[in-house]
Amino acid sequence: xxxxxxLGGGGVLGAVEVGMLRALFERxxxxxxVLGTSIGALNGALVARDPSPAVxxxxxxxxxxxxxxxxQVYGDRPLxxxxxxxxxxxxxxxxxxxxxxxxxxxxxxRFEDLAVPLHVCAASIERAAEHxxxxxxxxxxxxxxxxxPGLLPPARVGEEHYLDGGIVNSIPxxxxxxxxxxRLFVLQVGRVDRPxxxxxxxxxxxxxxxxxxRRHRFVRELADLPDHVTAHVLPARGTSGKDDxxxxxxxxxxxxxRIDLSYQASRDYLEQQLGRGPGEQSEPAGEPPDRx
Length: 292
Hints:
Number of strands: 8
Structural class: alpha/beta
Order of helices and strands: EHEHHHHEEHEEHEHEH
Largest sheet: 8 strands, mixed
Number of helices: 9
């Protein structure tokens, strides 16, 4: 059996994936293969480097650091952000702070040096195509995968420019099967569960259109999985429609809450689907469970 962790995109909502990963590692579920898009590429890179419970503490520390100092991610003060938007006409934030944070964490790590294979999705501008990084420097691939249109500039890798992988494949379940996985654990950030409202403002039209395309592909790929493949879509908690606003992209204040709630929900889901894990005890009869 080949187990794949499929980590989807979603910006600040990517904190929920840390809770999901904790629930998986507690049950001694380890990946043979990791796929990541956008923020899922960042989380996935750390997992592929160290596919053990120790990575949870490292990921939690990184997300807490972002919550305490969002400028590590976006860098600039609001006025400079407005000036950049006016000057470039294409993006609000510089990619330098997040790239430097990745370099501090991953250094010159290459895909070839990872403990388990990692595949990172980005959208090639020149070829108008889905592109998968699986060799070379990990940091360059993650920056390309997380280049959110309008927020960050296109990322150049070699002779091509890339935008966020979520444009072409936000939750790449079919790619995992193509790579040989027959057991999938899907770490999605909760947007696919959220009802969409009819857009009422011009800038809402693009977001809603993107969400329809993203969800349509994900649902279709799940429905088309071969019979021999098992897919577990882990539940995300602690998200809301506010997260989709421009200010929501910078709101790291609920990081720990998202991690904790998604861990609890994923732990319960895995117990329901797979039974109790090693060392888990039955709840005493007549007493409420120690979880929501």
